[in-house]
Amino acid sequence: MPPLLFLGAPPLPLCLAGRASRRARLAMAFAAPGSSSSSSASFDAAAFEAERHRLDAAARDGMASAAASAEADPRAWKWAIRKRVWDALEAEGIARDPRPVHHRIPNFDGAPAAADAFLDTSQCTQSLIKQCFNYHQLGRLDVFQNSQWVKVNPDSPQKQVRFLTLSGDKKLLTPQPRLRTGFFSVLDSQMVPIGCIPEACTSVGAAKYGRPIGLDERIKVDLIVIGSVAVDPSSGARLGKGEGFAELEYGMLRYMGAIDDSTMIVTTVHDKQLVDDIPVEKLLVHDVPVDIICTPTQGFIGKSYLQKNWARSEF
User: Which SUPFAM superfamilies does the protein's record reference (predicted)?
Assistant: First the structure.
């Protein structure tokens, strides 16, 4: 599963171009490249949230319909794994708001602990699954602490990661929900009023305090944190909720020159989201695997990091 390759400033890959062009037309209508920070005085948080919830509900209805009619689809195996994980999180009392977790990046009990694994080595233990080690032994704290720019998805289970990023005086790059008011927003602690960092970690707070940027912005992202529905520690293969936003955002960042093959990708999940039946051979070229997995109890580090071999297929 080779990484996406970009030389100079090429167009987005064909697998991403269609989705990018449709969302770009809407996004660019709201945010021009390099536009300035949103004015918190004029920002209508209630209207923003109402529209976000409306679009999210419509998208979940669409995904539910797609999943129900996917029996004849060769990609139906993805929906089967997603449903199994979503069902388990709900049935075992692990799921947390927003509920139900179906057709979402699921929030879970222990999400802050999984995020804190970036900083607290006591939460990370050795594992029998292929090249997994204690963070302290490998000095893996550097992967977060030495990052200046961290891209984090806007979903609920990664809220603590966004908080750690902003409170650690790092620059937070977060995609606008559904890329509908711009592509990405940039935030740092200096842009946020005192005491408002928790609010800035929410979708409405990022839109309120962040500076929207376009695809021509020159930045360098040091670390990517993404949410997952399921992830396989033996291969680094992951499944999102099925809309392709993580892949689209990854392709956009590659196009911008903001990331390259060496950029680490991390996901935070519950232990119940760890699976062993994602068939790597069925994944597509644009599917984004991960290098590091953090759960509330364990940390998994890919073989590729240890060998300084960044080919995604050699996790």
Answer: NagB/RpiA/CoA transferase-like
